[in-house]
Amino acid sequence: MSEYPPNASFHRICLTGVISCGDRITSRIKQGMTSVLRRQSSTSNENDVRMRNNRSSGHGAVNDSPPSSPAQPGDRGTRACCFCCLAVKSGNGTQGGPNSRIPLPERDDPPTHEEIESWGESFDKLMQSKGGRRTFREFLKSEYSEENILFWLACEDLKKEENPEIVEEKARLIYEDYISILSPKEVSLDSRVREVINRNMVDPTPHTFDEAQLQIYTLMHRDSYPRFLNSQMYKKLLEESQLS
Fold first, then answer.
1. In this structure, which topology does domain 113-243 adopt according to CATH?
2. What is the pTM of this model?
3. Mean pLDDT, the chain, as a whole number?
């Protein structure tokens, strides 16, 4: 006798079919959820990549007001890069205007043959000539004694000054450059003249260095001037001026 009631086999088959169907439904549901999760994960990854790219390219923000905008065609001339540019752009605000060019210093005319010839007549004529002083300075530079004429010229400039404050400042600079024993451009002066200068520096005047200037002038006259007249520099200059 069977342990199952009538029709038990039929019920068992039905139950088995239901269970199998339920398993298939559950499996499909799981597959669908897995697919959804994968799509969400892919979308999230794509968003992350976009955000990283935005951060690397533009730091994730839009700059509405850049720190510096490119110059517009009509903005030229509003800012000069240096003083020279500013000077060139002056004159009705346009380049090429009547006042736009920076005036260049006028070049001195070359000395005439007669003037160069007069330099050999006396040291005074040489030093009174602008071209003569310039040529003699080049000669002294070749002898490493340029400081002598530079000191003399500085004293001449001091004599023209009237403002007490400027006189004091220029006198101090002359002392530091040519009188101080620490200066590489110290001129050769005797002790008596140095004492006079030290007293005068208590209250400087345009004539503080008069004695020192005379001593250096005499030194150049007696020592350097004869060598200058016998130098190839002067002889060549004299010959070239005669041919021109």
1. Regulator of G-protein Signalling 4; domain 2 (1.10.167)
2. 0.57
3. 76
